[in-house]
Amino acid sequence: MPKVSPAGLRRSGDSKSSLRGYWVRVRFIIRCNTEYGESLAIVGSSSEIGKWNVASRENLVWCDDGTWQKTIDYYRDAEENLDVEYKLIIVRYAGTTQVCWEDGLNRRLQHPTVDVGCVSNVCRKEVMVFPDYPEWQDYGLKKFKEVTFSTAGGVLSFNIACAKASHTDMLSTFLTGLRPETRARYGAHPLTAEYAAEACDYGSDANRLKTHLLIISPGPKPEVVGYILMDQSEITHEHERYRKLYNTHLESPVDIFFAPVMGDKYQNRGIASSVIPVVKKHIEDIRARSIVLLGGVQQTNASAVHFYQKSGFHKYGEFTWDNLVNVDMRLEVR
Ligand SMILES: CC(C)(COP(=O)(O)OP(=O)(O)OC[C@H]1O[C@@H](n2cnc3c(N)ncnc32)[C@H](O)[C@@H]1OP(=O)(O)O)[C@@H](O)C(=O)NCCC(=O)NCCS
Questions:
Q1: Domain ranges in the chain?
Q2: Ligand 1: does its nearest atom lie under 6 Å from the Cβ of 187?
Q3: Could you list the pLDDT tens digit for every one of the 334 residues in the chain?
Q4: CB of residue 306 inside a 6 A radius of ligand 1
Q5: Common-topology check for domains 6-129 and 136-332
Q6: 301 in ligand 1 pocket by Cβ < 6 Å?
Q7: CB burial class (10 A; 0-12, 13-18, 19+) of residue 240?
Q8: Pocket test for ligand 1, best of 306, 311, 321 (most atoms within 8 A of CB)
Q9: ∠72-74-75 over CA atoms, to 5°?
Q10: How many CA atoms within 13 Å lie on the side-chain side of 23?
Q11: Atom of ligand 1 nearest to the CA of 181
Q12: Residue 182: CB within 6 Å of ligand 1?
């Protein structure tokens, strides 16, 4: 079975190969109470997971946090159906290899989705699956290339893409060029060249649950006109604030932290409002639950508060941080 290295995955981000097909990265994190001598594996319909041949199964790796994990990267031609069927199996070696299949219907991996499942099976195991966020950049090229927005300022046309290595300079120019008034409104992370490099390193572990969405002007000299961080990881202080102040329990990865910033000359032209439906559709596709403003929004940031309310976010309450009053807002999609 051909194995794809993370480096190979990143190389696929060049526009030529992306247009021909898709790299998909799926991370399985599975809780399963195996017994000593047993291991967990995946076998399924595609060649990467053995074509239903147990001998070619993909074995998962036992991790210290009590889960079995595996990242599988695979490539599909643009025309090919991305759906993959699979089952989890428990493998035990006792002189010969014994296999215990989970019962029920085959699991199905549809892209881009997050498959959150729970099965009880012949092995009496509880299994929870969180395949990873797929590489949105490639879907982006297919689904969102040349999104045309009708805004108050006329018809504007931009591309939406996930940050990847080739965007590093462009994102750095955007972040470092923002004027002080805009920077003062954005507290989610530093707006620096170093951060741009981190954001564009899709292969890094820290980015496993993050999407750095770029809104890019078309034409011979494309530039980033807007940037949105979407973070599915657990951010302890944010989760704690929601729990303490609002008795609301946020959960990773289904509650997604959100932090947008538009370029100075592109603000208040309806661009972020036009991107929101695309983001909402994606959130529904991956079966997430809500979008939560990372660190809230400053109470005095009237245009942003208006924008969020107009986009369907609800106010949860207020908190003070660094002598500034911030408003917690969240958009629930289910
Ligand atoms: C907040 C932000 C992301 C919104 O993106 P955007 O593309 O400018 O948003 P839109 O143009 O789609 O919508 C802005 C809305 O605010 C309105 N608005 C502008 N100034 C306003 C003001 N002073 N008071 C109230 N509403 C105002 C606009 O009229 C528009 O609403 P409308 O479509 O009903 O007319 C962007 O303005 C920005 O990057 N601001 C600086 C950084 C920031 O504040 N980030 C958010 C951190 S939480």
A1: 6-129, 136-332
A2: no
A3: 333 333 333 333 333 333 344 556 677 777 777 777 888 899 998 888 899 999 899 999 988 777 788 877 666 655 555 577 888 888 887 677 788 887 677 877 654 333 333 222 222 222 333 333 333 333 333 333 344 555 545 566 677 777 888 899 999 999 999 999 999 999 999 999 999 999 998 667 677 678 888 888 876 788 999 999 999 888 999 999 999 999 999 988 789 999 999 999 989 888 898 888 888 877 776 667 899 999 999 999 999 999 999 999 999 999 999 899 999 999 998 7
A4: yes
A5: no
A6: yes
A7: exposed
A8: 306
A9: 170
A10: 24
A11: 41
A12: yes
Q: Indicate if ligand 1 lies below 6 Å from the C-beta of 297.
A: yes
- Decide: 185 in ligand 1 pocket, CB within 6 A: yes
136-332 under CATH 3.40.630.30, yes or no: yes
**Was domain 6-129 assigned CATH 3.40.50.300?**
no
Instruction: Centre a 10 Å sphere on the Cβ of residue 17 and count the other Cβ atoms it contains.
Output: 14
| Choice from 303, 319, 321 to test ligand 1 binding pocket (greatest atom count within 8 A of CB) | 303
CA separation (Å) from 13 to 93, 122, 219, 315? Answer: 41, 41, 19, 38
DSSP string, 218-238: -SSS--EEEEEEEE-S--HHH
Q: Which residue's CA is the nearest one to ligand 1's atom 22?
A: 303
| Torsions phi, psi for 229 (to 5 deg) | -90, 130
Under a CB-based contact definition with an 8 Å cutoff, are residues 274 and 268 in contact? no
**Atom in ligand 1 nearest the alpha carbon of residue 271:** 7
**Ligand 1 atom, smallest distance to 226 CA:** 39
Distance 227 CA to ligand 1 centre (A): 14
